[in-house]
Every structure is written in structure tokens, then in C-alpha cells.
């Protein structure tokens, strides 16, 4: 007989249907497991509003730790393990003593939001990584400026004079590839000019960290070299129009914050092309950027073109690590020092090789003790 309408009707099973009790319990357990799994998936990542709240709490903690004297910058970047942007937060602290209260505040924030917190350090950089269920959400880079880490008995003037000792500027370029190399370089306790290749995964964060450390930042401007067979990547090439050069330069500068000048990356063909250099120099002048000619070819016209267009410029005197051995690099540093002593100033260019960093750490303090003044590249352009 059919059940009456509107009344609950139990499920009718055939008399010979056999459903063991153990099977029924297994079905219930499976249902609960599915619900738990789906619930976990729904909470696999933080919502946009939750991320924003955590960001605000982190920045507030940094301000409290320094009585609102810290400098803070936020640069969202995509994580390699997720399509969700990671909040990269850069905090400048006046001295190391403020790291402890900041660490305590970060631990409180992590517990409040059920986050994992990991800490690492290198030189004047302390890094705090916040993660939710294994996914990085916030990476806080706490930078202690060079002047706070190594007090100097001689204040740096805005424009050093060779009358107080030979001036030597060290440019280290090709930054942007290697995190470990950048950490080793930024841990050195003397001023450097850091030149960063654009459009690389680490370009922005290394430029930001170098700037906050107290170093000078340059754009290591990719240019076409001689004998190039396969053209790839973004670089300046002969035949480009002034508008193309300007557009490419703008895009590169967006990935290298705080750049005050440029030096060429490779470019033996590009820097020897008068038309291309005449297209580049007005774009640099409009942005008040100076140019350091790396002199990757004797046929370069970059420096002379910069002079004609009223762009502040200088040229490299010595390459430090064409031969990447410690002994050879130490000899090149001595050669740069001799040039500076003879001419009053010199610019040397090296790369973030372990041998180069070790040679700089050994020799530059000794040169300072002999009366040489380590300056930025901007101090030697004219």
C-alpha cells in the first residue's frame, strides 16, 4: 500500500536484504571522513581579509617596537608553491636590540592566527616566515642598516673629496639570481654599490634589502653583446627606437626599486652603437639616473655619449674577478687601489662569487686603515 501524502515514510527494503552492522558503521565513518576532508580543503589557505589583518598586525608590531621610527615597505610576490601572493614586508630597525620585542610580537601574531613561524638570519638581515598549513603567507625581512651595525668614527660627507684620501668605489653586479650569494654580500660591513639584474625572481627583494642596509643600488642594464646567436630575454639592442628604449627601461626599473643609476650588463655590441646610446641617454637624464660604463669593449661610446647628453657618468677602471681565484682577485683589488692612489679615485667591478666576497672581506678593511675611502659609485660620477 502506498504511504499517505505528507507523512514520513521509512525506507522499505526487501525482506532478503542483508546489511551487516559493521558495514553500516563503516559507511558512517566514511561519511565523517569525507566531511572532515572537505572541511580541511576549505581552510587550506587564508582569505584575503585574514591576510590583510595579519599584515596590519605585523606592521603595527614593527612600529611599536621602534616607537614608530621603523621604515616599512610591502611588496606582494607570487610564491613558488602557490598562486596566492606572499606579502613580502621589509622593516628597517635602528639597532639589533629591537629585534627581541619584535620577535615576541611576531610569535603572538602567529599563535593568534594558527600560523607556523620560522626565523633565520644572515649578517644584518633577520627573516621571519609565516606559514599556514605549509603555505608561505608573509615573509618579513628585518634589516639593520650598515651604520647601525658598524659605527664609523668618520662621518660620510655627501660628496667625498680625494684630498682626504684616495676614493675607491666597489660595484658588485649580476645580483638577482642567487639568494645565498646576496646574503653573503649584504653581510659585509662596508659600503658597496649593488647592481641588480632586472626581471629576475630575486631582483626586487635584493634591491630593497641592499637599500635598507645602507648600500647604493644600480640597475644592471642588460644590453646585447657581440657574437650573440640566440636572442632571448629583455635587453637593449641596436635598431631600437627611443620610445622602445624608454619603455624597456621603465619596465626594468619597476623590478629594481631604489636604483639611482645604471651600469651595462654585457653590451659589447650595444655600447659601441652610437644610435642606441643616443636613444638611451635622454631616458636616463629624464629620470636623473647616472651611467657607469662597465667597458665590456674598447669600442664603447657610452661614456662619451653620456657626456654629450648631460648625463652624469663614469667608467670602470678594473674588473676584479675575470680570473675567479682568491689570489688573482686580491691582485686586482691592489691594482684598483693603485689606480685610485694615482688618479684620486677609481671604480672596480666584481661579481658575487664566493672568492670575490672573501677577497673583499679580507682586503677592504686593510685599505681603509691605509687611508683609502670606500665610497659609492654616485660619489665618482661627474
Describe the 3D structure.
- This protein is an alpha/beta fold and 382 residues long.
- The protein folds into two domains: 48-145, Beta Polymerase, domain 2 (2-Layer Sandwich); 163-227 and 234-380, TIM Barrel (Alpha-Beta Barrel).
- It is 38% helix and 23% strand.
- The chain has eleven helices and 14 strands.
- The protein has helices at 21-42, 48-65, 99-112, 146-149, 179-186, 203-213, 242-254, 274-286, 302-308, 326-343, 354-369, and strands at 71-78, 85-92, 116-122, 125-132, 135-143, 167-175, 193-196, 216-223, 259-266, 290-293, 313-315, 318-319, 345-350, 373-375.
- Strand 1 (71-78) and strand 2 form a beta hairpin.
- The protein is globular, with a radius of gyration of 29 Å.
- The N and C termini lie far apart (104 Å).
Number of strands: 14
Return the string of H and E elements: HHEEHEEEHEHEHEHEHEHEEHEHE
Beta-strand share of residues:
15-25%
Q: Helix- and strand-based class?
A: alpha/beta
Radius of gyration: 29 Å
What is the class of the largest domain in the CATH system? Alpha Beta
Question: Top keywords for this entry?
Answer:
382 residues, alpha/beta, Beta Polymerase, domain 2, nine-stranded parallel β-sheet, 23% strand, disordered N terminus
Layout of strands and helices, then pairs:
Elements: H1 21-42, H2 48-65, E1 71-78, E2 85-92, H3 99-112, E3 116-122, E4 125-132, E5 135-143, H4 146-149, E6 167-175, H5 179-186, E7 193-196, H6 203-213, E8 216-223, H7 242-254, E9 259-266, H8 274-286, E10 290-293, H9 302-308, E11 313-315, E12 318-319, H10 326-343, E13 345-350, H11 354-369, E14 373-375
Parallel strand pairs: 2-5, 6-7, 6-13, 6-14, 7-8, 8-9, 9-10, 10-11, 12-13
Antiparallel strand pairs: 1-2, 3-4, 4-5
Amino acid at each position: 500500500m502506498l504511504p499517505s501524502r505528507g507523512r514520513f515514510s521509512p525506507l522499505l527494503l526487501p525482506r532478503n536484504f542483508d546489511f551487516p552492522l559493521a558495514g553500516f558503521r563503516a559507511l558512517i565513518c566514511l561519511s565523517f571522513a569525507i566531511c572532515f576532508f572537505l572541511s580541511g580543503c576549505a581552510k587550506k589557505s587564508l582569505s584575503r581579509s585574514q591576510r590583510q589583518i595579519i599584515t596590519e598586525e605585523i606592521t603595527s608590531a614593527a612600529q611599536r617596537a621602534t616607537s614608530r621610527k621603523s621604515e616599512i615597505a610591502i611588496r606582494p610576490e607570487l610564491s613558488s608553491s602557490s598562486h596566492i601572493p606572499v606579502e613580502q614586508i621589509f622593516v628597517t630597525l635602528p639597532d639589533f636590540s629591537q629585534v627581541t620585542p619584535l620577535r615576541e610580537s611576531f610569535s603572538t601574531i602567529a599563535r593568534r592566527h594558527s600560523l607556523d613561524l620560522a626565523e633565520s638570519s644572515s649578517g644584518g638581515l633577520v627573516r621571519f616566515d609565516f606559514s599556514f598549513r605549509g603555505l608561505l603567507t608573509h615573509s618579513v625581512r628585518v634589516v639593520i642598516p650598515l651604520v647601525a651595525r658598524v659605527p664609523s668614527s668618520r662621518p660620510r660627507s655627501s660628496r667625498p673629496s680625494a684630498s682626504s684620501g684616495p676614493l675607491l668605489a666597489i660595484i658588485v653586479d649580476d645580483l638577482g639570481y642567487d639568494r645565498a650569494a646576496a646574503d653573503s654580500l649584504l653581510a659585509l660591513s662596508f659600503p658597496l654599490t649593488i647592481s641588480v639584474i632586472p626581471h629576475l625572481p630575486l631582483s626586487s627583494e635584493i634591491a630593497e634589502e641592499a637599500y635598507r642596509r645602507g648600500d647604493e643600488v644600480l640597475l644592471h642594464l642588460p644590453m646585447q653583446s657581440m657574437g650573440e646567436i640566440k636572442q632571448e630575454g629583455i635587453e637593449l639592442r641596436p635598431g631600437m627606437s627611443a620610445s622602445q628604449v624608454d619603455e624597456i627601461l621603465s619596465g626594468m626599473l619597476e623590478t629594481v626599486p631604489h636604483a639611482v643609476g645604471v651600469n651595462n650588463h654585457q653590451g659589447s655590441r650595444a655600447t659601441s652603437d652610437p644610435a642606441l646610446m643616443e636613444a638611451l641617454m635622454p631616458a636616463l637624464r629624464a629620470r636623473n639616473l647616472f651611467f657607469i660604463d662597465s667597458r665590456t669593449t674598447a669600442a664603447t661610446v657610452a661614456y662619451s655619449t653620456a657626456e654629450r647628453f648631460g648625463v652624469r657618468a663614469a667608467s670602470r677602471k678594473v674588473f676584479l674577478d675575470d680570473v675567479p681565484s682568491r689570489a688573482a682577485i686580491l691582485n686586482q683589488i691592489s691594482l684598483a687601489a693603485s689606480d685610485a692612489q694615482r688618479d684620486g679615485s677609481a671604480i672596480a667591478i666584481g661579481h658575487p662569487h664566493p672568492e670575490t666576497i672573501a677577497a673583499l672581506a679580507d682586503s677592504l678593511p686593510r685599505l681603509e686603515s691605509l687611508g683609502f675611502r670606500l665610497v659609492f659609485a654616485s660619489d665618482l660620477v661627474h
